[in-house]
């Protein structure tokens, strides 16, 4: 990673932190603005000392924007599987059949892999337990959830969102 | 209407605390504390709405972040006996 | 009581009830890994419904932006915590109950 990239990273970190500060503060007198600028600079310098800035893939902090359409689809899936798990809990016989399955992840970047593992865990009924380079081990509450993951719908959607050339 | 919701959420917090006491393994206890934190964030948001003071939301935001960090820190301390150690060799830490 | 406040109080009440369902699940499930599934109902459905109901109530201003930020933080951090719990439980030799049907 060149010096120019690191500089670019720092600038975009400072801009996003300042945006967060403006959004959370709501007071815009000169003294508070000065304190806000100071705290943004302190946080940016601490995170560059912690080497949090050097990541492998996303140059821009705005990289996550390409996953927003996927997010809406994910919310729909979350609501569907929530209703399924709620029905299982409220059923007096507790019809669960827990199992461990392994699913493939075809994403290239670490960021997209994290998105995939997090969305598996976010959907109730499936939890990602362990992950290596191309496989994720999943604990599933029922047969339906495990089979829904095996079809690879979510995997394909994340991979195509990752390869989106327009954003 | 909102008063009933507040009472339901307080009851849920009580249930989570009981779960933290009767949990058999340490993971059960950590899970119960995690649930308690999430429900507390929702409680603070609702309470700020009910008392017409939305400034409480900043506290809820900080509480959500501290809840996550404390879970990770307790887990790391329990697993390795050390908060700063990472299980892989690279310089960035992991969870 | 107009229609928006009616809808949002419906959302909030449903969210509180789903929190109770999740806790009932945590009490009923047989082992630790299945308890994690029940707990994720609280983190997703409960938080989403309650915070979305509050957003509807406040309308579009800085307060609802903060609520949205809280929702995004919860939706990012709780699956990470659940994954860390499951991973360290598996490494701590806590065997999951498996059943095939």
Quick overview:
Chain A is mainly alpha-helical and about 170 residues long. Chain A is about 60% helix and about 10% strand.
Describe the protein's architecture and organization.
The complex is a heterotrimer of chains A (167), B (95) and C (101). Chain A has 167 residues and is mainly alpha-helical. Chain A folds into 2 domains: 3-54, no CATH class; 66-162, no CATH class. Chain A contains 6 helices and 3 strands, in the order H-H-H-E-H-E-E-H-H. Chain A has a 3-stranded antiparallel beta sheet with strand order 1-3-2. In chain B, helix 2 (26-50) packs antiparallel against helix 3 (56-80). Chain B has one domain (2-80). Chain B is 75% helix and 0% strand. Chain B is flat, with a radius of gyration of 17 Å. With 95 residues, chain B is an all-alpha fold. The N and C termini of chain B lie far apart (41 Å). In chain B, 35% of the residues are buried. The mean pLDDT of chain B is 84. With 101 residues, chain C is mostly helical. Chain C has one domain. Chain C is built from 3 helices and no strands. Chain C has helices spanning 3-28, 32-58, 62-91. The longest helix of chain C is centred in the C-terminal third of the chain and has 30 residues, at 62-91. The mean pLDDT of chain C is 88. Chains in contact: A-B, A-C, B-C. Chains B and C meet through helix 1, helix 2 and helix 3 of B and helix 1, helix 2 and helix 3 of C.
**Could you name the ranges of chain A where pLDDT drops below 50 across 5 or more consecutive residues?**
none
Average pLDDT number of chain B: 84
What is the SS-derived class of chain B? mainly alpha
What is the helix tally of chain A?
A: 6
Mind describing the biggest β-sheet of chain A? 3 strands, antiparallel
* Strand segment count of chain B: 0
Report on the biggest sheet of chain B.
Answer: none
**Looking at the structure, what is the overall shape of chain B?**
flat
Order of helices and strands of chain A: HHHEHEEHH
| Largest protein interface, residues of each chain | B-C, 41 and 45 residues
């Amino acid at each position: 990673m060149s010096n120019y990239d690191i500089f670019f990273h720092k600038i975009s970190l400072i801009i996003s932190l300042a945006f967060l500060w403006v959004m959370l503060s709501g007071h815009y007198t000169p003294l508070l603005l000065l304190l806000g600028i100071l705290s943004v600079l302190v946080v940016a310098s601490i995170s560059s000392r912690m080497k949090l800035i050097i990541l492998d893939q996303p140059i821009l902090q705005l990289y996550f924007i390409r996953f927003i359409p996927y997010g809406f689809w994910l919310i729909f899936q979350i609501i569907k599987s929530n209703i399924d798990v709620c029905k299982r809990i409220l059923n007096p016989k507790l019809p669960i059949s827990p199992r461990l399955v392994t699913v493939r992840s075809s994403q290239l970047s670490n960021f997209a892999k994290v998105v995939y593992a997090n969305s598996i865990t976010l959907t109730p009924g499936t939890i990602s337990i362990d992950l290596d380079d191309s496989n994720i081990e999943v604990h599933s509450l029922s047969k339906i959830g495990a089979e829904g993951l095996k079809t690879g719908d979510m995997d394909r959607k994340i991979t195509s969102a990752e390869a989106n050339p327009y954003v | 209407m909102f008063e009933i919701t507040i009472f339901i959420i307080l009851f849920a917090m009580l249930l989570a605390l009981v779960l933290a006491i009767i949990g058999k393994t340490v993971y059960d206890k950590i899970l119960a504390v995690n649930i308690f934190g999430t429900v507390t964030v929702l409680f603070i948001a609702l309470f700020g709405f009910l008392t017409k003071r939305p400034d409480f939301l900043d506290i809820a935001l900080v509480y959500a972040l501290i809840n996550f960090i404390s879970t990770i820190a307790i887990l790391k301390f329990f697993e390795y006996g050390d908060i700063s150690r990472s299980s892989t060799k690279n310089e960035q830490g992991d969870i | 009581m107009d229609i928006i406040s009616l809808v949002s109080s419906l959302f909030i009440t449903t969210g509180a009830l789903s929190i109770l369902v999740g806790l009932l699940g945590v009490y009923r499930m047989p082992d630790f890994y299945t308890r994690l599934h029940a707990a994720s109902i609280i983190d997703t459905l409960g938080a989403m419904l309650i915070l979305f109901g509050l957003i509807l109530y406040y309308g579009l201003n800085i307060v609802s932006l903060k609520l949205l930020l809280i929702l995004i933080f919860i939706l990012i951090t709780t699956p990470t915590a659940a994954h860390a719990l499951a991973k360290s439980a598996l490494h701590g030799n806590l065997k999951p109950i498996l059943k095939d049907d």
